[in-house]
């Protein structure tokens, strides 16, 4: 399957700082990428949909000023957690949508970023 | 609204046993896709299968097989002769088209523990 990378894989930061997470599709172009959040032993919750060249679409309850998303190219989307606080500590996972010539599409996921805010 | 239910929170089996993970979904769409993903302890989600709503053929891939029953809105996943490396959380997911793109709704996941 297609490969999606995420960087960094884990980050520890102090409360009040901002953290940027990168998501890259390595062997395909993705007009749409998604950002999820996963708490321990829970399912993935969609935070926002990132579209190349346009504003991200946020799910209900997700603060767009808190979680800034930029999809600058067909292979890169970034999520910036601004003024992070301990409650933002979580596992953040991105995915990139791959659409094949047949029209079939699949989301391929990055390895995730573990964020710990002290 | 759409919903994916994985009623089994955790399953424990002994190596070489067969195990079936259940997935029941709800959607008003006539066109939709169903997925299974595996999440090992490392955290990365691994894509296992995609099935569209018009294809009810069952699929087998090695020790993995999937049973799609549209009449009961179920998309169950069976692992035969389970192995320790199969230990992971398995997510069933559903996608629908709206606003020009599709999003995934995940079930809560089933943790499979295979012991030697």
Q: Can you give a write-up of this model?
A:
The complex is a heterodimer of chains A (118) and B (116). In chain A, 0% of the residues lie in helices and 55% in strands. Chain A is mostly beta strands and 118 residues long. In chain A, strands 2, 4, 5, 6, 9, 10 and 11 form a 7-stranded mixed β-sheet that branches. Chain A starts with a strand and ends with a strand. Chain B contains no helices and 12 strands. Chain B has strands spanning 3-5, 10-14, 19-21, 24-26, 32-39, 46-52, 59-61, 64-69, 74-79, 88-98, 101-106, 110-115. In chain B, the strands form 3 sheets. In chain B, strands 2, 5, 6, 10, 11 and 12 form a 6-stranded mixed β-sheet that branches. In chain B, strands 3-9-8-7 form a 4-stranded antiparallel β-sheet, with no helix packed on it. Chain B has a two-stranded antiparallel ribbon with strand order 1-4. The mean pLDDT of chain B is 91. Classes of the chains: A mainly beta (118), B mainly beta (116). The A-B interface holds A 1, 32, 34, 42-44, 46, 49, 51, 57, 91, 93, 95, 97, 104-112, 114 and B 33, 35, 37, 42-47, 50, 52, 91, 95, 99, 101-109.
What tags apply to this protein structure?
heterodimer; A: 118 residues; mainly beta; 4-stranded antiparallel beta sheet; 0% helix; B: 116 residues; 6-stranded mixed beta sheet; 12 strands; globular
Helix content of chain A: under 10%
Q: What average pLDDT do the residues of chain B reach? A: 91
Chain pair with largest interface: A-B, 24 and 23 residues
Instruction: Note the beta-strand portion of chain B.
Output: over 45%
Structural class of chain B: mainly beta
The global form of chain A is: globular
Spatial extent as radius of gyration of chain B = 14 Å
- Poorly predicted tracts of residues of chain A: none
**SSE string of chain B:** EEEEEEEEEEEE
Number of helices of chain A: 0
